[in-house]
Amino acid sequence: MSAGNMRLTLKVWRQSNTNTQGGFENYNLDGVSPDMSFLEMFDILNEQLIEENKEPVAFDHDCREGICGMCSMFINGQPHGPLKGVTTCQLHMRSFQDGDTITVEPWRAGAFPVIKDLVVDRDGFDRIISAGGFVSVNTGNAQDANNLPIAKEDADDAFSAAACIGCGACVAACKNASAMLFVSAKISQLALLPQGQAERSIRAEKMVAQMDAEGFGNCTNTHACSAECPKEISFENIARMNREYLGAKVSSKAL
Amino acid sequence: MATSSRLDAKIPQGSLEDKWEKYKSSVPLVNPANKRNIEVIVVGTGLAGASAAATLAEMGYKVKAFCFQDSPRRAHSIAAQGGINAAKNYQNDGDSVHRLFYDTIKGGDYRSREANVHRLSEVSGNIIDQCVAQGVPFAREYGGLLSNRSFGGVQVQRTFYAAGQTGQQLLLGAYSGLQRQVGMGTITMYNRHEMLDVVKIDGKCRGIIARNLITGELERHSAHAVLLCTGGYGNVFYLSTNAMGSNVTAAWKAHKRGAFFANPCFTQIHPTCIPVWGEHQSKLTLMSESLRNDGRIWVPKKQNDTRAGNAIPEDERDYYLERRYPAFGNLVPRDIASRAAKERCDAGYGVGTSKLAVFLDFSAAFHRYGQGEANKNNITNASESQILEWGKAVVKEKYGNLFDMYKQITGEDPYEVPMRIYPAVHYTMGGLWVDYNLMTTVPGLYSLGEANFSDHGANRLGASALMQGLADGYFVIPITVGAYLAGEIRTGHISTDHEAFVKTEKEVKDRIEKLISIQGNTSPELFHRRLGKIMWDKCGMGRNEKGLKEAIVEIRALREEFWKDVKVMGKIGDFNPELDKANRVADFIELGELMCIDALTRNESCGGHFREEYQTEEGEALRDDENYMFVSAWESIDTEKWELHKEELIYDNIKIAQRSYK
User: Fold this and answer.
1) Which of A154, A164, B387, B401 has its CA 20 to 30 A from that of B77?
2) The domain A122-250: what is its CATH number?
3) Which domains does chain B have, with CATH numbers?
4) B69, B75, B133 member nearest A142 (Cβ)
5) What would the pLDDT profile of B545-570 be if each residue is shown by its tens digit?
6) What ipTM describes this predicted complex?
7) Could you tell me if B72 and B473 are in contact, meaning their C-beta atoms sit under 8 angstroms apart?
8) Least CB-CB distance to A43: which of B145, B280, B576?
9) Domain ranges of chain A
């Protein structure tokens, strides 16, 4: 289907840069097809704005197939919109009704400052990974891959945690802007695998310390993060992280 | 035919099996103390870039890495689904380095370089070892060992995978290595930066001009070597499986500064993508080739059959790949599967509302796997519906994320009705010409991964892109770059006050100002869409002389119109995605012209390059080895002007044959 007949009112957060005050603008949009993705609907909005000599809405997006983690819209009060397990780019307009008003905001968190409109700065996530989200193995040091059998269940669990796309929806969903689901997914992946054992304690300590330094909030067990996670990363990871962290603190060798 | 005197592939002497080993033990080295004073710029942080940056930093070089996304983890390697090849022979099915080498050369329709491909096969096993050591959670069997599956054009099982998210897991592995070095201070990472030119001093590449995409400021960065790991140019077609931001700009700027562009017309059209639905579509989504392990491709035997897929009885279905290619069946290489789909649709057998689609059907797999589960659990009286349910669960474990994605995009449940698929632009085999060291024709400027041309000839086999990206980054460039940098230990830090930096930055600035000053009537997006239509219609799955000549004229006119009528909103000194896009589209337009010229010059069909004038009676690609067994390396002379240099391809170790998968 190409011809669209949905009419929508969009209430979109506009903000020139980090240091200015933002606010909502309302836009009316016609000709939206239910088969369009949410971002394709935004493409149309932007084409319309350009025609009207207005600056288009800045938003982050790249792969548009739900895996790069770049898209980050807070739609009608939910990160990535109403569907479970779906990123904004994979959300389609058939999830909305003709005549709907849709409110679109950026991720809201002190540790994710707005760059412009719907674009936020998520560099804090990279810094948390730099603090310890890796196995310290230089290229060329590896043994034959099959010398290290790993029980399928452990490999599968590690994979489930590793499926995190680093989009930050967990932070946006949380009333405390906690990044614990993101951090615990990486800690879990590596704690579940034999390769991660050597640095298991120091990793938990350093990643948690960096998370705190970035200004992310604490977990108060509302489970909103995993409920809104587009990759449905399990809340159990946070429990595992807490165990890892406590265990590490007991025998801490950190500087 | 002799190779142009301007091209020296620098292939080491000796037998094919010994070249790389001998090269490694004789290549000049840079001692650890000197490495600390040598700077390397890596542009792009996909598999090739992230692995190269991490490894070079581990070795002691000072590395600066750049990506246009907000994090290096977003690079489009992340979206690769199906798997990564390696000649491990874990399945004991007769695989070997030689067989992987042979399959890759044959798969590329004898248009790639023997020595490069052999080296790729040699290091393939090390990649798997490295990734496992990093904690990449590959799929495993119950015994705890790694699992494999098959990909197209191959009769062994050598593909390692992590569900349908192999690229994601491999990239996150390389990214973790990169971030580890960032934390240690050996890599400086520049997110949201786009390279807009290379800077040459006395003929050597000495740095880049990059734009900070948040502030709009231009920055000068110097280095002793620059590695372009900037991916492919499939977005020249507008609609492709690439990410929205994937672009040719870095490679194209290098080309304009003297790097030859090789085989630009070699593009891969992937057979199994979700069909186009309408004019506002922004991208196409791949359904992994791995699905062809279990899915069967068919169309109705009757033309214009409008029945739903599952309402058409078995004897009225044409499993055309199994019919035409019994030896490889549904797992023929991508170019062949794509053309076969196009042939059926063009003949009127297509399905769906557009009639530009074929079925990819899992019902046989549901049944087979379900029966297997019943047998495993010793259940002899299971009902058909129970068997199907168990079978669906097995399929879900293998491909669940792909099935979910299909449902999300089309609104149809592929567990209940067959998927509808059609070919779409996916990968570009062409790219910057590089020698054995991965150096372009500009000294000190290298190209890795999809951005170069070297390993896949005229058609890439499935699961080989991840292999090449990581081979180049982890195992090839760390050795080969030493051959050049050993000569740079006395150079010292390169000042960005040099006039070459000043002049190049000025040229970039002028172009940006020009783009924003035009204030015409047409958005960059609309120009891009028009370019894409020309490319798809006339330089897509089928090409002919008449169409290509028309396309060249149309693209030239489009370029002129662009520079008169483009409308770029926003400001220069600001976060401005429209400006970024305009810059990229301008380069795509120029590239499109060169692609058509290249396709017009190559009077043969090979791999993904199908010139309709050159086909066998059965509709297969008809190569002309006598006249076209060469790499086309194009030198940029001026607007609308290129000079062709040929690198002869010599096959000492493989018998050239018509490529047959029958």
Assistant:
1) A154
2) 1.10.1060.10
3) 271-425 (3.90.700.10), 501-625 (1.20.58.100)
4) B133
5) 999 999 999 999 999 999 999 999 99
6) 0.97
7) no
8) B280
9) 6-116, 122-250
